[in-house]
Amino acid sequence: MNLKKEIHDYVLTHQDEIIATWKDIVDTPSKVNQRDDLNACCDKLIALFEGIGFEVQKHDVGPVNGPAFSGILGKDRPGKPVMFSGHYDTVPLAGEHPFRYDDEGHVRGLGSLDMKGGITIAYHICRMLNELGWAERPVKILFLGDEEKGHVDGTAVEVMRELAPGALCDFNMETGLVSNAICVGRKGTIITKMTIHGVGAHSGNDFLSGRSAIAEAAHKIPMIEALTNLDKQTTVATTLIEGGTVMNSIPPVCRLTVDSRIFRMDERERILAAMKEIAADTFIEGCSTEYTCEEYMPPFEPNEKNHILAGFVSDISEELGWGKMGTVTLGGGSDASHITIAGVPTICSIGVRGQFNHTEKEYALKESIFERTELLANAVVRIDEFAARIGE
Fold this sequence. Notes:
Layout: H1 4-13, H2 15-26, H3 35-50, E1 55-59, E2 66-73, E3 82-87, E4 100-101, E5 106-108, H4 112-132, E6 139-145, H5 156-163, E7 169-172, E8 176-177, E9 182-186, E10 188-197, E11 201-202, H6 213-225, E12 235-243, E13 249-250, E14 253-262, H7 265-280, E15 288-297, H8 304-319, E16 327-330, H9 336-341, E17 346-347, E18 353-355, E19 363-365, H10 366-381, H11 383-389
Parallel strand pairs: 3-6, 3-7, 7-17, 8-18, 9-16
Antiparallel strand pairs: 1-2, 2-6, 4-5, 5-19, 10-14, 10-15, 11-13, 12-14, 18-19
Helix pairs in contact: 1-10, 2-4, 4-10, 8-10
């Protein structure tokens, strides 16, 4: 079904509506630590997608975090569905950050880039294809309300792992890069916290009774740092040290925080096993160590199908006159990791383009919302070409 011209004309004639949707979503607050606002934003988005024919479910992921919502359009259509995913929560920057743009086409407003622009694209693609009569495959959506906190304190990960399988592919509508490259891999993050217990004692009058928790930590830190493997792009850094009580006492406690970034699942297993072993080792008799490892995101591990999907989209970009897009791997995490683990070919950072996420300087490029809407709409209507490339 060749809808190239119809898609181009639709985007061209609906630019004001696309911007209005973008503004409405951005101006609906959804900071990650404000559950009532998150619920209200979720309900607004559900109403939008229901209004264009999606069957939508809202998913409670626990008493603290914003809910998830999923939906399907054309569930009786043949074939595996195409999926759009992402998150509607934003970082909790202080103050008000309304939607606005300047003469240079820089769009600002909390979440305009990360990543309400991406949700706007997904919505208008589905709305457009409905109006143009495309009904070749089902379309799924899956948007989360607690991504910016890594889904800690909730069950959103379980929701993703349950609902993502079965899709032909996923476009994770995260922040697009100014370079126009497609993200095909991201580092996972493990935060390890060690609390080392020693024995406090006066450092002058009772030195021999003391067991220094700081000295015990000093034995462990080189072992921790040695876990870095730059050949595999694994970095392990001790980022915080807190210890001692007063200047004339043997320290009874020392706390370490360790940031580990990994690109590969086998490296994840190695780091988790090593942290357990390091915590169990005791170098100073009378000391002991408690530890926790908290994963904020597993790695979004590059694989062949992800690269094929990126190449397919890049080929369409070239045909449309925007050039090859290229691929990149990034250090920050996203839900593309969970969806890839669920077995769905995924590309990330395919939403509106911009930079400076999570800061007062964050902006999106206005024209990119029109380009990405046209690009991905063409990808959806030609998705059988991708399916053939992977043998589906």
